[in-house]
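User: two proteins, same treatment. go.

Assistant:
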Amino acid sequence: MPELTIDDVAWDQEFSDVQRPHKPQESEEFIEAVVSVGKFTSPLLVIKDEETYPLIDGYHRYRWWSENGRDLEIAPPRVEIMDRLTSRPAAKYWMRLYQNGQRNLTDEEQRFQRGKALAEKVLAMKIECGRSASDVVAEHAADQGISRSRAYREKAYAEHLYPTDAPDAPLRVRRGAVPQ
Protein backbone atom coordinates (compact mmCIF):
# COMPACT_ATOMS: atom_id res chain seq x y z
CA MET A 1 0.00 0.00 0.00
CA PRO A 2 1.58 3.29 -1.05
CA GLU A 3 2.04 6.08 1.47
CA LEU A 4 0.01 8.99 0.07
CA THR A 5 0.27 12.72 0.69
CA ILE A 6 -2.12 15.54 -0.07
CA ASP A 7 -0.28 16.08 -3.36
CA ASP A 8 -1.41 12.60 -4.51
CA VAL A 9 -5.09 13.43 -3.98
CA ALA A 10 -7.23 14.12 -7.06
CA TRP A 11 -10.20 16.48 -6.91
CA ASP A 12 -13.06 14.60 -8.59
CA GLN A 13 -16.03 16.66 -9.75
CA GLU A 14 -18.40 13.67 -9.76
CA PHE A 15 -17.67 13.01 -6.08
CA SER A 16 -17.57 16.71 -5.28
CA ASP A 17 -21.12 17.05 -6.62
CA VAL A 18 -22.30 14.51 -4.03
CA GLN A 19 -20.78 16.64 -1.27
CA ARG A 20 -23.14 18.69 0.87
CA PRO A 21 -21.76 22.21 1.44
CA HIS A 22 -21.04 23.41 4.95
CA LYS A 23 -23.60 25.71 6.51
CA PRO A 24 -22.05 29.03 7.68
CA GLN A 25 -22.00 27.90 11.32
CA GLU A 26 -20.35 24.59 10.35
CA SER A 27 -17.65 26.47 8.42
CA GLU A 28 -16.91 28.74 11.37
CA GLU A 29 -16.73 25.80 13.79
CA PHE A 30 -14.49 23.86 11.40
CA ILE A 31 -12.01 26.74 10.99
CA GLU A 32 -11.98 27.45 14.72
CA ALA A 33 -11.29 23.79 15.52
CA VAL A 34 -8.42 23.46 13.03
CA VAL A 35 -6.75 26.72 14.08
CA SER A 36 -7.16 26.08 17.83
CA VAL A 37 -5.74 22.55 17.64
CA GLY A 38 -3.19 23.48 14.99
CA LYS A 39 -3.77 20.34 12.97
CA PHE A 40 -6.42 18.23 11.29
CA THR A 41 -7.84 15.41 13.37
CA SER A 42 -9.54 13.55 10.51
CA PRO A 43 -7.81 12.21 7.40
CA LEU A 44 -8.69 12.76 3.77
CA LEU A 45 -10.25 9.58 2.41
CA VAL A 46 -9.58 8.47 -1.16
CA ILE A 47 -10.24 5.45 -3.35
CA LYS A 48 -7.93 3.88 -5.91
CA ASP A 49 -9.41 4.61 -9.33
CA GLU A 50 -7.19 3.40 -12.15
CA GLU A 51 -4.03 5.49 -11.65
CA THR A 52 -5.53 8.29 -9.52
CA TYR A 53 -6.70 8.70 -5.93
CA PRO A 54 -9.96 10.69 -6.05
CA LEU A 55 -11.08 12.32 -2.83
CA ILE A 56 -14.31 10.96 -1.35
CA ASP A 57 -14.23 12.53 2.12
CA GLY A 58 -12.48 15.67 3.27
CA TYR A 59 -13.33 18.19 0.55
CA HIS A 60 -13.60 21.02 3.07
CA ARG A 61 -10.33 20.01 4.77
CA TYR A 62 -8.59 19.69 1.40
CA ARG A 63 -9.83 23.05 0.12
CA TRP A 64 -9.18 24.91 3.38
CA TRP A 65 -5.64 23.55 3.73
CA SER A 66 -4.87 24.34 0.08
CA GLU A 67 -6.05 27.93 0.53
CA ASN A 68 -4.91 28.64 4.11
CA GLY A 69 -2.93 25.85 5.74
CA ARG A 70 0.41 26.55 4.12
CA ASP A 71 0.33 30.20 5.20
CA LEU A 72 -0.58 29.25 8.78
CA GLU A 73 2.06 26.50 8.84
CA ILE A 74 -0.52 23.82 9.64
CA ALA A 75 0.48 20.34 8.49
CA PRO A 76 -1.75 18.91 5.76
CA PRO A 77 -4.29 16.26 6.71
CA ARG A 78 -3.09 12.69 6.39
CA VAL A 79 -4.47 10.61 3.50
CA GLU A 80 -6.04 7.15 3.82
CA ILE A 81 -7.20 4.80 1.06
CA MET A 82 -10.65 3.22 1.48
CA ASP A 83 -9.72 -0.23 0.12
CA ARG A 84 -13.15 -1.73 0.65
CA LEU A 85 -14.73 0.67 -1.86
CA THR A 86 -13.89 -1.00 -5.15
CA SER A 87 -16.04 1.01 -7.58
CA ARG A 88 -17.22 4.57 -8.08
CA PRO A 89 -20.89 3.66 -7.36
CA ALA A 90 -19.80 1.94 -4.12
CA ALA A 91 -17.88 5.08 -3.14
CA LYS A 92 -20.89 7.30 -3.83
CA TYR A 93 -23.10 4.95 -1.80
CA TRP A 94 -20.68 5.24 1.14
CA MET A 95 -20.55 9.04 0.77
CA ARG A 96 -24.31 9.40 0.82
CA LEU A 97 -24.86 7.19 3.83
CA TYR A 98 -21.85 7.80 6.02
CA GLN A 99 -20.13 11.00 4.96
CA ASN A 100 -23.19 13.13 4.21
CA GLY A 101 -25.14 11.37 6.96
CA GLN A 102 -22.79 12.79 9.60
CA ARG A 103 -24.20 16.27 9.11
CA ASN A 104 -27.37 17.73 10.59
CA LEU A 105 -29.80 16.82 7.83
CA THR A 106 -33.49 17.60 7.72
CA ASP A 107 -35.87 14.62 7.56
CA GLU A 108 -36.37 15.24 3.84
CA GLU A 109 -32.60 15.42 3.22
CA GLN A 110 -32.13 12.15 5.12
CA ARG A 111 -34.89 10.52 3.09
CA PHE A 112 -33.30 11.76 -0.15
CA GLN A 113 -29.79 10.64 0.90
CA ARG A 114 -30.98 7.14 1.85
CA GLY A 115 -32.95 6.79 -1.40
CA LYS A 116 -30.09 8.05 -3.53
CA ALA A 117 -27.65 5.83 -1.61
CA LEU A 118 -29.84 2.81 -2.29
CA ALA A 119 -29.89 3.61 -6.02
CA GLU A 120 -26.07 3.82 -5.93
CA LYS A 121 -25.82 0.54 -4.01
CA VAL A 122 -28.10 -1.29 -6.46
CA LEU A 123 -25.86 -0.09 -9.31
CA ALA A 124 -22.64 -0.96 -7.44
CA MET A 125 -23.81 -4.48 -6.53
CA LYS A 126 -24.97 -5.11 -10.09
CA ILE A 127 -21.54 -4.05 -11.43
CA GLU A 128 -19.44 -5.78 -8.79
CA CYS A 129 -21.20 -9.08 -8.28
CA GLY A 130 -24.39 -9.26 -10.33
CA ARG A 131 -26.73 -9.15 -7.30
CA SER A 132 -30.44 -8.55 -7.82
CA ALA A 133 -32.04 -5.26 -6.84
CA SER A 134 -34.44 -6.99 -4.40
CA ASP A 135 -31.54 -8.59 -2.49
CA VAL A 136 -29.75 -5.24 -2.28
CA VAL A 137 -32.92 -3.46 -1.10
CA ALA A 138 -33.49 -6.08 1.61
CA GLU A 139 -29.90 -5.71 2.85
CA HIS A 140 -30.06 -1.90 2.75
CA ALA A 141 -33.37 -1.86 4.64
CA ALA A 142 -31.95 -4.11 7.35
CA ASP A 143 -28.78 -1.98 7.62
CA GLN A 144 -30.80 1.22 7.95
CA GLY A 145 -33.43 -0.25 10.28
CA ILE A 146 -36.30 0.50 7.91
CA SER A 147 -38.82 -1.66 6.09
CA ARG A 148 -38.23 -2.86 2.54
CA SER A 149 -41.26 -0.91 1.35
CA ARG A 150 -39.89 2.28 2.94
CA ALA A 151 -36.53 1.65 1.25
CA TYR A 152 -38.26 1.28 -2.11
CA ARG A 153 -40.29 4.46 -1.49
CA GLU A 154 -37.18 6.47 -0.58
CA LYS A 155 -35.37 5.19 -3.68
CA ALA A 156 -38.39 6.14 -5.83
CA TYR A 157 -38.54 9.56 -4.12
CA ALA A 158 -34.87 10.27 -4.88
CA GLU A 159 -35.22 9.04 -8.46
CA HIS A 160 -38.36 11.16 -8.91
CA LEU A 161 -36.51 14.29 -7.75
CA TYR A 162 -33.46 13.51 -9.85
CA PRO A 163 -34.06 10.81 -12.49
CA THR A 164 -30.45 9.68 -12.85
CA ASP A 165 -31.12 7.47 -15.87
CA ALA A 166 -33.11 9.99 -17.92
CA PRO A 167 -31.23 10.78 -21.14
CA ASP A 168 -32.18 14.47 -20.96
CA ALA A 169 -31.20 14.91 -17.30
CA PRO A 170 -28.46 17.52 -16.87
CA LEU A 171 -24.99 15.99 -16.54
CA ARG A 172 -24.66 17.24 -12.96
CA VAL A 173 -27.86 15.43 -11.99
CA ARG A 174 -26.82 12.20 -13.71
CA ARG A 175 -23.63 12.35 -11.63
CA GLY A 176 -25.61 12.31 -8.40
CA ALA A 177 -25.89 15.94 -7.37
CA VAL A 178 -27.60 16.52 -4.04
CA PRO A 179 -30.46 19.07 -3.93
CA GLN A 180 -29.55 22.22 -2.04
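Protein 2:
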Amino acid sequence: MANLKEIAENIKNKDLEKALNLCENYNDKDNQHIIFNFKGVIFLIKENLETSEKNFLKSIEIKPNFEDPIKNLYLIYLKKKLFKKLLIYANKLVEIDITNTDYIYKLAYAHELNNNLDNALKYYNKYIELNGENKKQALNNIGCMYLKKNKPKIANDFFIKGMSYGEDKIIINNILYSFVML
Protein backbone atom coordinates (compact mmCIF):
# COMPACT_ATOMS: atom_id res chain seq x y z
CA MET A 1 0.00 0.00 0.00
CA ALA A 2 1.23 3.46 -0.89
CA ASN A 3 1.81 6.06 1.76
CA LEU A 4 0.90 9.74 1.57
CA LYS A 5 4.52 10.81 1.26
CA GLU A 6 4.98 8.59 -1.82
CA ILE A 7 1.89 10.07 -3.46
CA ALA A 8 3.06 13.62 -2.69
CA GLU A 9 6.53 12.87 -4.13
CA ASN A 10 4.99 11.56 -7.35
CA ILE A 11 2.86 14.68 -7.68
CA LYS A 12 5.90 16.86 -7.00
CA ASN A 13 7.88 14.96 -9.66
CA LYS A 14 4.97 15.32 -12.12
CA ASP A 15 4.46 11.54 -12.33
CA LEU A 16 0.73 12.19 -12.23
CA GLU A 17 -0.51 8.84 -13.54
CA LYS A 18 1.46 6.95 -10.90
CA ALA A 19 0.25 9.35 -8.20
CA LEU A 20 -3.36 8.92 -9.34
CA ASN A 21 -2.98 5.15 -9.39
CA LEU A 22 -1.56 5.23 -5.86
CA CYS A 23 -4.53 7.38 -4.76
CA GLU A 24 -7.00 4.92 -6.28
CA ASN A 25 -5.38 2.04 -4.39
CA TYR A 26 -5.04 3.86 -1.06
CA ASN A 27 -7.07 2.09 1.64
CA ASP A 28 -6.70 4.09 4.87
CA LYS A 29 -10.16 5.56 5.44
CA ASP A 30 -8.83 8.07 8.00
CA ASN A 31 -6.98 9.98 5.28
CA GLN A 32 -9.56 10.04 2.48
CA HIS A 33 -9.81 13.83 2.75
CA ILE A 34 -6.09 14.00 1.89
CA ILE A 35 -6.49 11.53 -0.98
CA PHE A 36 -9.32 13.58 -2.49
CA ASN A 37 -7.16 16.70 -2.16
CA PHE A 38 -4.25 14.92 -3.89
CA LYS A 39 -6.57 13.81 -6.69
CA GLY A 40 -7.81 17.38 -7.00
CA VAL A 41 -4.24 18.64 -7.29
CA ILE A 42 -3.44 16.01 -9.94
CA PHE A 43 -6.43 17.05 -12.05
CA LEU A 44 -5.66 20.74 -11.45
CA ILE A 45 -2.15 20.22 -12.84
CA LYS A 46 -3.73 18.42 -15.81
CA GLU A 47 -5.99 21.48 -16.28
CA ASN A 48 -9.12 19.36 -15.72
CA LEU A 49 -10.83 21.96 -13.54
CA GLU A 50 -14.19 20.17 -13.30
CA THR A 51 -12.78 16.91 -11.93
CA SER A 52 -10.34 18.83 -9.77
CA GLU A 53 -13.17 20.88 -8.26
CA LYS A 54 -15.24 17.73 -7.53
CA ASN A 55 -12.33 16.16 -5.65
CA PHE A 56 -11.64 19.27 -3.59
CA LEU A 57 -15.33 19.50 -2.69
CA LYS A 58 -15.32 15.82 -1.61
CA SER A 59 -12.26 16.53 0.53
CA ILE A 60 -13.91 19.38 2.44
CA GLU A 61 -17.14 17.40 2.70
CA ILE A 62 -15.14 14.90 4.77
CA LYS A 63 -13.11 17.49 6.68
CA PRO A 64 -14.69 20.99 6.37
CA ASN A 65 -11.74 22.93 7.83
CA PHE A 66 -9.04 21.28 5.71
CA GLU A 67 -7.29 24.36 4.37
CA ASP A 68 -5.48 22.88 1.35
CA PRO A 69 -8.56 22.02 -0.73
CA ILE A 70 -10.19 25.32 0.25
CA LYS A 71 -7.13 27.20 -1.04
CA ASN A 72 -7.24 25.07 -4.18
CA LEU A 73 -10.93 25.82 -4.73
CA TYR A 74 -10.06 29.51 -4.41
CA LEU A 75 -7.53 29.05 -7.26
CA ILE A 76 -10.04 27.18 -9.43
CA TYR A 77 -12.73 29.81 -8.98
CA LEU A 78 -10.21 32.55 -9.72
CA LYS A 79 -9.21 30.74 -12.95
CA LYS A 80 -12.86 30.20 -13.89
CA LYS A 81 -13.74 33.80 -12.96
CA LEU A 82 -16.49 32.56 -10.61
CA PHE A 83 -16.07 35.46 -8.23
CA LYS A 84 -19.08 34.74 -5.99
CA LYS A 85 -17.70 31.27 -5.24
CA LEU A 86 -14.23 32.78 -4.87
CA LEU A 87 -15.61 35.01 -2.12
CA ILE A 88 -17.23 32.05 -0.33
CA TYR A 89 -13.94 30.16 -0.10
CA ALA A 90 -11.92 33.27 0.78
CA ASN A 91 -14.32 33.79 3.69
CA LYS A 92 -13.87 30.16 4.77
CA LEU A 93 -10.10 30.60 4.88
CA VAL A 94 -10.37 33.68 7.08
CA GLU A 95 -12.87 31.88 9.35
CA ILE A 96 -10.27 29.13 9.82
CA ASP A 97 -7.40 31.53 10.57
CA ILE A 98 -8.25 35.21 11.02
CA THR A 99 -4.59 36.13 11.58
CA ASN A 100 -3.25 34.63 8.34
CA THR A 101 -2.32 37.63 6.21
CA ASP A 102 -2.36 35.58 3.00
CA TYR A 103 -6.00 34.63 3.68
CA ILE A 104 -6.90 38.23 4.50
CA TYR A 105 -5.36 39.36 1.21
CA LYS A 106 -7.31 36.66 -0.66
CA LEU A 107 -10.52 37.88 1.00
CA ALA A 108 -9.77 41.51 0.11
CA TYR A 109 -9.08 40.53 -3.49
CA ALA A 110 -12.25 38.43 -3.69
CA HIS A 111 -14.28 41.39 -2.42
CA GLU A 112 -12.57 43.63 -4.98
CA LEU A 113 -13.42 41.24 -7.82
CA ASN A 114 -17.03 41.17 -6.60
CA ASN A 115 -17.02 44.99 -6.64
CA ASN A 116 -17.55 45.12 -2.87
CA LEU A 117 -15.06 47.98 -2.65
CA ASP A 118 -15.74 49.01 0.97
CA ASN A 119 -15.15 45.45 2.22
CA ALA A 120 -12.10 45.11 -0.01
CA LEU A 121 -10.64 48.32 1.44
CA LYS A 122 -11.35 47.07 4.96
CA TYR A 123 -9.47 43.80 4.40
CA TYR A 124 -6.57 45.33 2.45
CA ASN A 125 -6.09 47.78 5.33
CA LYS A 126 -6.23 44.92 7.82
CA TYR A 127 -3.65 43.07 5.72
CA ILE A 128 -1.33 46.10 5.88
CA GLU A 129 -1.93 46.57 9.63
CA LEU A 130 -0.98 42.92 10.24
CA ASN A 131 2.26 43.54 8.32
CA GLY A 132 1.37 41.44 5.27
CA GLU A 133 4.28 40.60 3.03
CA ASN A 134 3.10 42.36 -0.15
CA LYS A 135 2.14 45.81 1.11
CA LYS A 136 3.12 47.45 -2.19
CA GLN A 137 0.52 45.44 -4.12
CA ALA A 138 -2.14 46.00 -1.45
CA LEU A 139 -1.52 49.75 -1.48
CA ASN A 140 -1.70 49.78 -5.29
CA ASN A 141 -4.99 47.86 -5.16
CA ILE A 142 -6.39 50.32 -2.61
CA GLY A 143 -5.35 53.21 -4.86
CA CYS A 144 -7.06 51.59 -7.85
CA MET A 145 -10.27 51.21 -5.86
CA TYR A 146 -10.21 54.89 -4.95
CA LEU A 147 -9.80 55.65 -8.65
CA LYS A 148 -12.93 53.55 -9.29
CA LYS A 149 -14.67 55.62 -6.61
CA ASN A 150 -13.54 58.75 -8.50
CA LYS A 151 -11.26 59.90 -5.67
CA PRO A 152 -7.94 60.45 -7.47
CA LYS A 153 -6.31 62.48 -4.67
CA ILE A 154 -6.82 59.68 -2.12
CA ALA A 155 -5.78 57.13 -4.76
CA ASN A 156 -2.57 59.04 -5.43
CA ASP A 157 -1.71 59.03 -1.71
CA PHE A 158 -1.92 55.22 -1.66
CA PHE A 159 0.11 54.86 -4.86
CA ILE A 160 2.86 57.04 -3.36
CA LYS A 161 2.82 54.95 -0.17
CA GLY A 162 3.16 51.86 -2.38
CA MET A 163 6.21 53.35 -4.07
CA SER A 164 7.91 53.59 -0.67
CA TYR A 165 8.20 49.78 -0.85
CA GLY A 166 10.04 49.88 -4.16
CA GLU A 167 9.71 51.30 -7.65
CA ASP A 168 7.04 49.76 -9.83
CA LYS A 169 6.03 50.65 -13.42
CA ILE A 170 2.38 49.86 -12.78
CA ILE A 171 2.23 52.14 -9.74
CA ILE A 172 4.03 54.90 -11.65
CA ASN A 173 1.44 54.63 -14.42
CA ASN A 174 -1.34 54.70 -11.81
CA ILE A 175 0.16 57.84 -10.24
CA LEU A 176 0.23 59.53 -13.66
CA TYR A 177 -3.35 58.44 -14.33
CA SER A 178 -4.52 59.77 -10.96
CA PHE A 179 -2.96 63.16 -11.79
CA VAL A 180 -4.82 63.20 -15.11
CA MET A 181 -8.07 62.58 -13.22
CA LEU A 182 -7.47 65.50 -10.79
